[in-house]
Each structure stands twice: as structure tokens, then as C-alpha cells.
Specification:
Order of helices and strands: EEHHEEHHEEHHEEHHEEHHEH
Largest sheet: 11 strands, antiparallel
Number of strands: 11
Structural class: alpha+beta
Length: 316
């Protein structure tokens, strides 16, 4: 892989993806929901397999069985959380039980879901035969996550850009392609001004300005993400994101949701067209280095509906 303005390409289409979704829906109904995990895997295999860099496509190696087992383990963790909170309510009082429940949920299961899902998805993704991986440790992430949540709450959201950048750095710096690590050198202070502006203008613009803030952050994050001697670049714009969202919403409304497959394809195409890898990176010396990862985090994301910032390849 030698980056000279290399742009990813997506070769999929809405019709093919729609066929996969219909098949998944029918099999999910017939199996009373159990096929959901295999259906989700089939969609990922298609989307990853249709995405190419430098002429070679990504591959997704996860299985439905892994997702199903991960979901069962996640259910076990959630049940344990409920039992612990219930015991606290019975032995101490209801207030303590409720506080314990939310403390374990937001400071335990949420970060566990984020890291677990990222580790699983990257470990099941490959390019040119080499796997991606994530090597961050949960206890190290908690040192970033818990203070960030507390400070964001105490500052009424003003600390959030610093927190988000620290999370981004942890996720990217612990992501690997084979033996080669990704690197992130962004700083919260560079995002803070735009974040405050977005907090002020978003209500005044009925939320529209948020698209410009998200575009700025997308460009900033990618421009500060590197692999070997190469660096990523994004040309996403606020107007582009707004137009993408409006057309997607119109497509969903007009088709009564049937156009979801085309919405997915349009979104991926937009981000592919506005992302590039630039620089003289030479990854010929990269070797494979297997890193084990289970799917428990994936199961937790389904139970908790966690917004996975950076779980997929385009979120690096």
C-alpha cells in the first residue's frame, strides 16, 4: 500500500443489499429472531467485501455463531448487573440500588461494549490477507473514560470535546494493521472552539449547524490519523452531510423504509469519495500478528444500543 491520494472505492449497490436484507428478514421471522446474528454477519460480509483500497477489497471473517454466543454472554452480564442492583436495593435502600445500577451500566458495561465491539470487528477484518486488531486494555480505557464522563457532567458538556478526543486517541493508538499501529495526534483544544460554537448555534439553527460541526470534526480527526508514514485526509463538508441526510430521509419516507439499503449504500459512497490516504507509506514489511477477540462486546452493544464511535474501519 503506497499512499498517493489513495481513495477507497465501494462497488456495492442498493439492489444487491436489498436482496440480502429481504432474505435476512424472512429467515429471522421463520427462526423467531435467532437468524438476526447470521443476517447481520451477511450484511457486513457484503459491505466489507465491496469496499476496496488500492484495488484490493476488505474481507470480513466474523460468524453469526460468534455474535450469538457473544449476545448470550452479554445477557448474562446484564442479568448479573440487575441481580447486584436488586441486592443493593434489598440490603441497603432503593436509592443506593438505583445509583449502583447506573454507575455499573455507564462506567462498566458501556465502555466494555465499546472496546469489545471494536476489538471483535477489527480482528475479523482483513486487507490483502492481513488482519486488523485492537489491543487496548479495559482498565486503561477506564482511566480515560470515567474521569471524562465526570468532568463532562460537571462542566455541563464543555469538557466533552477534550473527552471525545482522548477517547479517539485511545481507540486509534491501540488499533493495528498487522504489526503496524495507527496513530492519532489531535488535541481537544483544537476542537473546543468549534464545539462551543456548535452548542450556541445548533439551537438557533434548529440543529442544522451540527452538520457543519460534524464535518469539521470528521476532517480534523482524519487529518490527525496516521499509519506508517502516510496520513488520512477527509474532504467532508457540512453542506454535503446535510444534503446526504435530507435525501436519505426523503428516500426512507417516500419508500416507507424500503429504501434503507440504498440509504446505506449512498452513505458509504459519500464517505469513500471524501476520504483519502496520502503519503509514502510502505507496508510491505507488515506481518500478521494474531490477537484473540470474543464477541461479548458486540452483544452488549445490541442490549445497550451503544453508539459505536469508531468500531468499524471508517471509524479509525
Amino acid at each position: 500500500m503506497s499512499g498517493h491520494g489513495l481513495t477507497p472505492a465501494f462497488h456495492g449497490n442498493g439492489g444487491s443489499l436489498f436482496g440480502i436484507h429481504i432474505r435476512n428478514l424472512l429467515l429471522t421471522i421463520v427462526t423467531f429472531g435467532i437468524y438476526t446474528f447470521w443476517g447481520r454477519t451477511r450484511v457486513r460480509q457484503y459491505l466489507y467485501g465491496q469496499t476496496a483500497f488500492d484495488g484490493d477489497r476488505l474481507a470480513y471473517h466474523g460468524t453469526g455463531g460468534e455474535l450469538f454466543r457473544g449476545w448470550l454472554k452479554a445477557m448474562g452480564l446484564m442479568l448479573l448487573l440487575v441481580v447486584v442492583a436488586g441486592a443493593a436495593m434489598a440490603l441497603v435502600n432503593q436509592v443506593v440500588g438505583v445509583l449502583l445500577f447506573y454507575a455499573l451500566l455507564f462506567c462498566g458495561l458501556f465502555p466494555l461494549a465499546l472496546l469489545g465491539a471494536r476489538k471483535y470487528r477489527l480482528s475479523r477484518t482483513s486487507w490483502r490477507g492481513l488482519r486488523f486488531s485492537f489491543r487496548g486494555e479495559f482498565q486503561d480505557f477506564l482511566e480515560v473514560y470515567i474521569p471524562g464522563v465526570l468532568l463532562t457532567t460537571l462542566t455541563l458538556g464543555f469538557y466533552y470535546p477534550f473527552f471525545h478526543v482522548k477517547v479517539r486517541r485511545f481507540l486509534v493508538d491501540n488499533s493495528y494493521f498487522g504489526t503496524e499501529a495507527f496513530a492519532f495526534d489531535g488535541e481537544g483544544r483544537d476542537v473546543f472552539g468549534q464545539h462551543v460554537l456548535a452548542m450556541l448555534l445548533t439551537p438557533l439553527t434548529l440543529g442544522i449547524y451540527w452538520f457543519w460541526y460534524m464535518a469539521f470534526r470528521n476532517r480534523y480527526y482524519w487529518s490527525h490519523t496516521a499509519l506508517d508514514a502516510g496520513r488520512f485526509a477527509s474532504t467532508v463538508t457540512g453542506g454535503g452531510l446535510l444534503q446526504l441526510a435530507l435525501v436519505n430521509m426523503l428516500l426512507l419516507i417516500v419508500t416507507l423504509g424500503i429504501g434503507y439499503s440504498w440509504v446505506q449504500v449512498r452513505t458509504i459512497l459519500y464517505h469513500c469519495e471524501h476520504l483519502a490516504f496520502e503519503g509514502p507509506a510502505d507496508l510491505a514489511a507488515v506481518r500478521q500478528e494474531a490477537v484473540a477477540a470474543g464477541a461479548t462486546g458486540e452483544g452488549l452493544t445490541e442490549l445497550l444500543d451503544v453508539d459505536l464511535v469508531g468500531a468499524d474501519f471508517f471509524g479509525l
